[in-house]
Amino acid sequence: MEQGEGRMLVIGVIGADVHAVGIRILEFAFREAGYQVTNLGVMVSQEEFIGAALETGADAIIVSSLYGHGELDCRGLREKCEEAGLGEILLYVGGNIVVGKQDFSDVEKRFRAMGFDRVFPPGTTPEEAIACLDKDLGVK
User: Fold this and answer.
1) Within a 13 Å sphere around the CA of 18, how many CA atoms are in the beta-carbon half?
2) What are the residue numbers of the active site?
3) Does the pLDDT value for residue 1 go beyond 80?
4) Of the candidates 27, 40, 38, 36, the residue with the CA atom closest to the CA atom of residue 4
5) Adjacent-strand bridge partners of 27
6) Vertex 4, ends 61 and 127: CA angle to 5°?
7) Mean per-residue pLDDT for 48-68?
8) What is the pLDDT of residue 31?
9) Which of 9, 80, 86, 119 is placed for a possible disulfide with 111 were both Cys, Cβ 3.0 to 4.6 Å?
10) Which secondary-structure segment (H or E) carries 33?
11) Considering Cα of 87, then 109, then 33, then 137, what sign does the dihedral take?
12) Which of 47, 60, 55, 79 is nearest to 11 (CA)?
């Protein structure tokens, strides 16, 4: 089987964020890497991520945010995943996820404390995210 081995990803842009280009680029890159992708698009609620993950049997939820309010939008997502029986699902977040310029190591610590397995700063390439998925999902 190809890279990605058909693992299922649910991706989308959380909250009131309407930045659509990056999530389309990620969708294309993940598909090219052999992953099955459900792209929920923009302005996605936590409940929509969880519902899609349950419906598709997703291996990972990948949350994008570019408008700086990702920290508010993502708070409580891991707990809601656990309540829905998705406590072990891989949870990634990336983009411009906080307001203003902040030390990324501090940002990463806060998101990890919120239950995210991986936190990606602005400028992360799709290839970097795919390498992490391959490693975390035991692909290849």
Assistant:
1) 0
2) 17, 19
3) no
4) 36
5) none
6) 75
7) 96
8) 96
9) 119
10) none
11) negative
12) 60
